[in-house]
């Protein structure tokens, strides 16, 4: 996750949102899973693979893992398997509930049954900081175009990197009127809506 546009703090990081809130992210973790997908209905034709059998479930995916939102890596590399048949057209990024079996990068403890955990303070104008903690059991997903078009695993492998930004994570959220669940949903959407896949 990219940290451009945020200010590092002694603990976590802070940012000023588009609505003028000063938000300090103190602690946070999200459970992520990345996979490659074949043709998807109702998706633009130019993103579809031609001549794929209907109902083919062959896919490749990285292991699910819990990631820290306060001290994240710049980007995530998908551990894509090689030797698979067929062409893959889209990247599917999913935030899902954690279990004790998912991996962790060592900076975020596994939080059973939670997709997003977040602790922050927010303030507006000269007002005092208000603490907010959310633990969201619900998930969110997005389909992303593959850089350079479909990937054929019968050919040479390619490395894909999932890049997400923290800078706009809290934009559009009115903390004075939003509930904790609404904040969680908005953060999950922002986390994936600004994501992109880059290839090497």
Summarize the structure.
With 200 residues, the protein is mainly beta.
For the record, give the distance between the C-alpha atoms at the N and C termini, rounded to a whole number: 18 Å
Quaternary status:
single chain
Q: Look at the structure and give the mean pLDDT.
A: 79
Largest sheet entry: 10 strands, mixed
Which structural class matches the secondary elements?
mainly beta
Low-confidence stretches: 40-47, 50-57
Strand portion: 35-45%
SSE topology:
Elements: E1 7-8, E2 13-16, E3 21-37, E4 60-61, E5 65-68, E6 76-77, E7 87-88, E8 90-95, E9 103-104, E10 116-124, E11 130-136, E12 140-145, E13 151-152, E14 160-163, H1 180-193, E15 196-199
Parallel strand pairs: 5-9
Antiparallel strand pairs: 1-2, 2-3, 3-4, 3-5, 3-8, 3-10, 6-14, 7-13, 8-12, 10-11, 14-15
What does this molecule look like?
The chain is mostly beta strands. It contains one helix and 15 strands. The protein has one helix at residues 180-193; strands at 7-8, 13-16, 21-37, 60-61, 65-68, 76-77, 87-88, 90-95, 103-104, 116-124, 130-136, 140-145, 151-152, 160-163, 196-199. Strands 1, 2, 3, 4, 5, 8, 9, 10, 11 and 12 form a ten-stranded mixed β-sheet that branches. Strands 6-14-15 form a three-stranded antiparallel β-sheet, with no helix packed on it. A hairpin with a 5-residue loop joins strand 10 and strand 11 (130-136). The radius of gyration is 18 Å and the shape is globular. The protein starts with 6 loop residues before the first strand and ends with a strand. Mean pLDDT is 79; it is low at 40-47 and 50-57.
């Amino acid at each position: 996750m990219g940290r451009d546009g945020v200010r590092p703090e002694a603990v976590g990081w802070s940012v000023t949102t588009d609505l003028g809130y000063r938000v300090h992210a103190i602690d946070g973790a999200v459970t992520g899973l990345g996979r490659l997908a074949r043709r998807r209905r109702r998706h633009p034709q130019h993103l579809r693979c031609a001549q794929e059998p209907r109902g083919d479930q062959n896919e490749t995916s990285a292991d699910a893992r819990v990631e820290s939102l306060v001290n994240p890596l710049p980007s995530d590399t998908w551990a894509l398997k090689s030797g698979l048949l067929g062409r893959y057209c889209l990247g599917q990024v999913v935030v899902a509930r954690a279990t004790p079996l998912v991996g962790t990068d060592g900076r975020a403890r596994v939080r059973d049954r939670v997709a997003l955990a977040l602790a922050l303070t927010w303030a507006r104008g000269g007002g005092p900081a208000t603490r907010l903690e959310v633990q969201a059991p619900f998930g969110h997903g997005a389909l992303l175009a593959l850089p350079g078009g479909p990937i054929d695993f019968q050919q040479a492998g390619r490395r894909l990197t999932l890049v997400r930004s923290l800078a706009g994570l809290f934009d559009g959220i009115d903390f004075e009127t939003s509930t904790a669940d609404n904040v969680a949903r908005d953060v999950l959407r922002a986390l994936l809506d600004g994501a992109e896949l880059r290839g090497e």
